[in-house]
Design goal:
DHC; DYH5 protein
Length: 169
């Protein structure tokens, strides 16, 4: 029982830490007004890295041993642990999926940033078709908030490129 209590304390601390990571990941992002679409991809890559690292730690042999000891002791903290494990797995899957879909837009980021307005406009129909495909097929990225954020960043990049073209051209 003494060992079980110590292990429950450790798991309770882990639960608090993991909850903190989950809460922070769900908070509203504060971003500069002129960010381009590459920032969206970078955000999801960072999030994917965070949750994959967390999953690796959760799946480590050390953690599994502690959890199996608590299972044998029928600990009540396991219910919270399993719920958090599930939430972390879901967040990791979401980030991985979003990175995969946003990578399909990566080929458009360079023309949006470096091309002339005329050349840029040649890429817009394909870009919009790809965004439509993401919206229709992605299980996670097809919300109005995510699409609005992405389209805003694309528009920001187009405006920035046009300003640069007009001022430097």
């Amino acid at each position: 029982t003494e060992v079980t209590e110590k292990l429950e304390e450790v798991v309770t601390i882990w639960i608090k830490q993991i909850r903190q990571v989950l809460v922070e990941s769900e908070q509203m992002r504060r971003e500069a007004d002129d960010l381009g679409p590459s920032a969206e991809l970078e955000h999801w890559k960072t999030r994917m890295s965070t949750f994959n690292s967390l999953l690796d730690e959760i799946k480590s042999s050390r953690v599994k041993k502690i959890i199996s000891i608590l299972q044998a002791a029928r600990s009540k903290t396991l219910k919270q642990w399993k719920e958090l494990d599930s939430n972390v797995t879901l967040a990791a899957n979401e980030a991985k999926d979003n990175v995969r879909y946003l990578y399909t837009l990566d080929t458009f980021f360079c023309p949006l940033a470096k091309a002339s307005p005329v050349t840029m406009m040649e890429h817009v129909p394909s870009l919009m078709n790809t965004i439509c495909m993401i919206y229709c097929t992605s299980p996670y990225y097809n919300t109005s908030e995510r699409m609005t954020s992405l389209l805003l960043k694309i528009t920001n990049q187009m405006i920035k490129t046009c300003k640069t073209y007009l001022c430097d051209g």
